[in-house]
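Anyone else keep sequences and structure tokens together like this?

Example one:
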Amino acid sequence: MLSSCLCVSSSPKIVLEKHQQRMQTKTFTKTSCGFKNSPSPTKSSSSSRRDSSTRASIHTQVFATNNKSKSKQALVDEVKKCSLITAIKTPYLKSGKIDLPKYDVLVEQQIAGGVQGLVVGGTTGEGQLMSWDEHIMLIAHTSKIYGDDLLVIGNTGSNSTREAVHATSQGFAVGMDAALQINPYYGKTSRAGLMKHFGAVLDFGPTIVYNVPARTTQDIPSEVIFELAKHPNFAGVKECEGNERIRNYTKNGVTCWSGNDDEAHDAKWDAGAAGVISVTSNVAPKLMRELMLGAKPNPKLRDDLIPLMRWLFKEPNPIGVNTALAMLGCAEPVFRLPYAPYDEKTRQEGKKIMETVGLEHFVDAGDGARIRDVRDDEFILLDEW
């Protein structure tokens, strides 16, 4: 078993009590968050050519409607200081709808574990399987209830610039602190197109650009990142192309977060990254905090966690973390297709790995840390929801 963490842990009972207290003091309403659930109007060619000053003016008006206690966006410098950000999982009810009570318990355990920020509706949170209404609702809910305790980063990127602009304006309207923006995928564009695409969304507020060629099939060239970094709302880049790339950015003043859990320790301590946007912290936030926010490098903990990280990514993310959280009882064993759970053999491998790490380090469902043997026939795979 691993040694105890640097951070103070909270019992599941205390975590649940904190959540109940929080819900009593904060009531979510569409009106108070300025939630817009109507479809965006069709843009004319003239409206598509809004200049930066017009967009900034709209952004100011958007924030005037947001009554969140943190009344304005986090400064870009605040975003840059965030070292441990969880790409939070979205749990589902058996109907396939978003399970907000279980989501809230997951978030409470992230807070108790010392996580500093959340990416809401990212790849791990299956934003790609959400309607935009679901997506913005979840950003609004997270910002309203937890915005005083965590940096809320909404994944409002899209391969359509029009959709990215609309979703980003809504995300800031309902209270997110920053946006995560991916480059257009599948329908790839030119360097000039990349600059125009990111320029359109950067005007709304603090932005982390996301480079993950394994998913988009297009690498964002370093010269594009350096050019985007001149924008005052550019916070940095979530970089999945390795620590040499990160080192090149950081030595030139560009803030980076590793997008690879297994490289995150060295990214911070050797390559100068601010931290990590993590999947593993969904299940072991306290250990990831120790790894990324300890007083000095911890190669032993890094090596102890590598088997868990590799197991979580044995199939494309978020299959592993979805399976793990079902086994831990923190989410119903419900999968929106095309994702399907690990098979029985792989689940048993994960059980042994988690037991070796020590179950006291993992999130749980409030009834004590334990791993459930979820049968194949207990998993629900949905092709509509």
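And example two:
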Amino acid sequence: RTSRTPSERREARKLFVYDLFVLYDLFVLSAVTLALANRRHRTMLVQRVLVCSQIPGLCAAVERAVTAAGGHVALQQRSPTELQRGGAWHDEWRRAQVVLCDPGIVAHMVDDAAELRWMQSTWAGVNTIFSSSCKRDYTLTRLGGCFGGQMAEYVLGYLIMLERRLLNAKSDQESKEWMPGTYKPTDPLGPRPFNTLTLGLLGCGDIGSKIAEAGKGLGMRVVVFRKTLQRTNLSVDLVTPSIELLLETSDYIVNILPSTPQTRGLLSGDVLRKCATRDASRRPAVFINVGRGDVVDEVSLVKALDAEWLSSAVLDVFEVEPLPSTSALWHHPKVLMTPHISAVSYADDVAELYARNLLIYYAQGKGQQEEEEENNGKDHDVTKLLYKIDWDKGY
């Protein structure tokens, strides 16, 4: 040391300080890397989900979606038979806290799920949960945001088919009849320009908005029935709390309402008589139901068709499903029906929404055990989950 010159000693001190800074930077980098690794490990531990669904490829789709969103999920798929009482995995169902399910196949078991905190439905409708279970101490979210396009296609398809009389064309083809006059405006039942017609919508959430857009795309006047008028961003011509006004003015009436105590039987009795008070030069309205079947009972609907208050009905949903073989609707000449398929759940749609909700639910990225220890078993924050069911409102 004594042999070094002052300049050499100054340089040595500089190198020593530099080395300290390098060591400090390496320490900080190692600490951050370790923290991120631990956080990732905790996230992997937390996201354990029980799946009970008949949707093909759902688990694979969920894994892809969650991984793409930067998370990880460990799925356990079980059949309803395995989870029900007496099943090999019934205890697993009783202990499950987070589940992804088709509500129709688990509704009868929900009351047995003692530790359930959150259920994500793979369907838009959760009526079976309300009717088959009394349990309400958990969060239920439905599938949403992906059915509007499908239902708009369904409604639009029937609008065009009925106005252009395409079913008649098939009948003419089978009987080898060449009858072009049937499909011209000169025929009393010939096609009408869509810009002269009114589309009436019972309800207008995210599904109804898509149907309204489709109707406006054809040039139709669109009228919406809503009890409350708080939403003002709808691209429609009129929003009214008067169902009578909608029935009197609409050429096509589309029900999209959920099943609630307020909507059940809304069109039952002689309510549809209002459709007959329109101008005599106009045809009776067509009723299209893609919402819930209990908005009108079968007797009332058949009466409206037989009395010509309605010209026809397109039904995708029914008061009782599957539709009993004794129903008068099966062979009614003015009824067209489909078996509740106006919109279906696709694995990728379910997975996309579920991945978003899963990451919201585990927003802090903590392990389940760690979370419970820190919060003394308190529930996760579920206020920001998408499409959360309001137990009081019923939807």
